[in-house]
């Protein structure tokens, strides 16, 4: 990559523009991926914490946490779900996701559900607070892990409290099973399709991610195509003095690999910094899949684009270096 590296050193501004563009696109993809993951966790973290092998809805053909109602079945745990307003000791109302399990169930944070409620930390309830919900009261027995369901903090209650609050004799909304082959069951990930906002939210965000990846590939192809055309005379001279097509193609692709690596690294590091700043303030998840995979994909797409953009090198006519037609 002797020629490619010398060109980078000589035309810092031009290559800096390419690196900056790649870094910006990488940053956008990283931030959007983190937000997509974070918003997904706000929908599903309580279900993921329960981690059942299978979830059974009333109608397996039309899974819905809103309308499903199930009766108790041996070998399963009935989970009741719903959202409502709860009043704290000071009378202030706030929306909670009411999740119900049978008494004696060990919750994800290690608390054992008894007659009282177990509140997520973000609800800011204290031990022994008495809460009012749907005409009944319940004490807070513990403050547990901060979990969310349908973008709402979770309040765990015994099944009987859920039945009274929602005026139903059903055992729950869905059945949770440790048997992945249970009749009518779907996997945990498939059960997320029953959350009203989850599908539309995730599909919209992932579609935007797809557009960003496509834009990244197109922009890189455009930059490198223009750059290849502009250096046609130089390439013709190199060919005239004996440089092979293979050598020039390898040099150009290697040059692209360096520029893309610098760009995606800068974008990923800035994204990491923004992620640290946003975590806890906005629904942003920091993970290997957020920080490493998007830059790798941008780099891979960029390399594919570089191969396409530099193919014209083989068509450069060395006679143009001697005054012929390029």
UniProtKB/TrEMBL annotation:
Phylogenetic classification of the source organism: Bacteria, Bacillati, Actinomycetota, Actinomycetes, Mycobacteriales
Record bears the keyword Transmembrane helix: yes
Transmembrane segments annotated in the record for this chain: 15-35, 210-229, 257-278, 284-309
Pfam families: FtsX
Protein name, as recorded: ABC transporter permease
Organism, scientific name: Corynebacterium meitnerae
Location (main, coarse): membrane
Record's subcellular location: Cell membrane
Source domain of life: Bacteria
InterPro entries the record matches: ABC-4/HrtB_transporter, ABC3_permease_C
């Amino acid at each position: 990559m002797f020629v490619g590296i010398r060109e980078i050193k000589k035309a810092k501004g031009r290559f800096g523009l390419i690196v900056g563009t790649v870094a910006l696109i990488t940053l956008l993809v990283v931030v959007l991926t983190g937000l997509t993951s974070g918003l997904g966790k706000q929908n599903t973290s309580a279900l993921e914490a329960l981690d059942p092998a299978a979830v059974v809805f009333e109608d397996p053909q039309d899974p819905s946490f809103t309308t499903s109602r199930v009766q108790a079945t041996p070998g399963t745990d009935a989970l009741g779900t719903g959202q409502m307003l709860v009043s704290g000791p000071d009378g202030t109302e706030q929306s909670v996701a009411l999740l119900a399990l049978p008494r004696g169930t060990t919750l994800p944070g290690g608390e054992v559900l008894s007659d009282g409620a177990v509140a997520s930390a973000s609800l800011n309830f204290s031990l022994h607070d008495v809460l009012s919900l749907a005409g009944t009261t319940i004490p807070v027995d513990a403050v547990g892990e901060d979990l969310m369901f349908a973008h709402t903090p979770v309040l765990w209650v015994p099944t009987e409290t859920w039945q009274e609050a929602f005026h139903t004799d059903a055992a729950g909304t869905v059945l949770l099973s440790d048997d992945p082959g249970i009749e009518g069951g779907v996997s945990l990930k498939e059960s997320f399709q029953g959350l009203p906002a989850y599908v539309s939210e995730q599909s919209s965000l992932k579609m935007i991610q797809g557009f960003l990846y496509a834009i990244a590939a197109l922009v890189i192809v455009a930059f490198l195509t223009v750059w290849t055309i502009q250096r046609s005379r130089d390439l013709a001279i190199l060919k005239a003095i004996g440089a092979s097509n293979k050598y020039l193609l390898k040099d150009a692709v290697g040059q692209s690999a360096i520029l893309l690596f610098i760009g995606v690294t800068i974008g990923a590091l800035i994204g990491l910094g923004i992620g640290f700043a946003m975590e806890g303030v906005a629904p942003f998840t920091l993970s290997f899949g957020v920080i490493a995979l998007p830059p790798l994909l941008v780099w891979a797409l960029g390399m594919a684009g570089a191969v396409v953009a530099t193919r014209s090198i083989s068509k450069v006519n060395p006679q143009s270096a001697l005054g012929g037609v390029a």
